[in-house]
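Hello,

Our lab assistant flagged a job as stuck in the queue for most of the afternoon. It eventually completed. Since we weren't sure the result was trustworthy after the delay, we are filing this so someone can double-check. Below is the sequence as submitted and the structure that was eventually returned. Let us know if re-running is recommended.
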Amino acid sequence: MHAEPTPSTNALTSSLRLGALKLLLSALTLTTVACGGVADDAGGADTTPDASMDPTPDSGPPACPTGYTGATCTDCDAGYQDVDGDDVCLPSCEATGSLALACGAHGTCAVDDAGERACMCEEGHTGAACDQCAPGYVMSADACELYTPSATDLVLWLDSTAGTLTQVGSTAVASWRDRRGGVSSLQATASGTARPTRVTDGLNGRTVLRFDGDDDLVISNFPGLKTADYTVIVVYKPTGAAADNLVSLRQSEIGVAFGLRRTSSTGYRYSHRGTPAAGNGDFADLAFGAADASNVKLIAMRRFTSGTLDYMLFTGNEPGDLDGVTGSDTALVEPALSNSMTLHVGDAGMIGDLAEVLIYDRAVPDQELATLRTYLAAKWGIE
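-- returned structure --
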């Protein structure tokens, strides 16, 4: 038999339910606080989330543009520079990867005053990446070297940079050997006070021979020049007053076979089979402007036979310039040239620096002469 609940039992049940409800509410309040809320002044929970609950947390200041860094993005990042101080960061020589400046094996990266990078090339190399040969240079193995003049009918090559000088004392030069190597034992010799001086930092930073007006290098019994066709090329820088013969070939029977003489501060004369001072035989005069009087001279004398005898005197100081003084006359009966000729280099009276002398026993054609001019201009800094 089922008994009905008594009033006292109902009161107890209600009291238990009320207590459970209060416990539940209390638990919910504690859970809200534990999840980030704080109790408000009225005892309720503040459910506003704090920073630790931000689904997109703050990661610092905004990213700087490429090449910049720092709190205000005003500093240059690694691999960038602001050499000119204009607040613009450009790639530096230390940049890597796709920003690196490739200068190859013969160049070095450098930044100019404007903040621009460029490859500084070794001597003889040119191009943006220093991978080409400059005018006057040719590729040899993996590097550019100075052009070597043709050996065809080259009867004398005096080059003051080739280790061909024999000295007496610290600077006096007693002999200047032919550079053609094993094919020749020729050497121009001097003695006593006629010896020129070796200058190691001369034209374009290269060694030259300095003549003081009393110096004369001589090759006795010069075996070259068997015909009337020849070419003589001289690189010379005057340093004093008007000079005498720069280079001349003499023979007792005919006087001067050929000669190059400085006649005034700006004038030069090439003579064939005559005396340069007298102006007899065949000759051509060349005058430089006063502003060019002391500049380095590249002078080529060429004589060739083609129906008539033609003679030419070229300056060759400007790129591609083979213009000069030319002339011709009726073919002469040329006397035979024997081995008794004497070659004088830097004849007494010449004051200046002599760098190179090339003598061919043929008339060098224009194209080859232009190549020689480019080589000598690059080597001796002729502009």
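-- support follow-up --
The delay was a queue issue, not a problem with the job. The result is valid. The CA atoms of residues 37 and 46 lie 5 Å apart. Residues 1-54, 316-322 have pLDDT under 50 and may be disordered.
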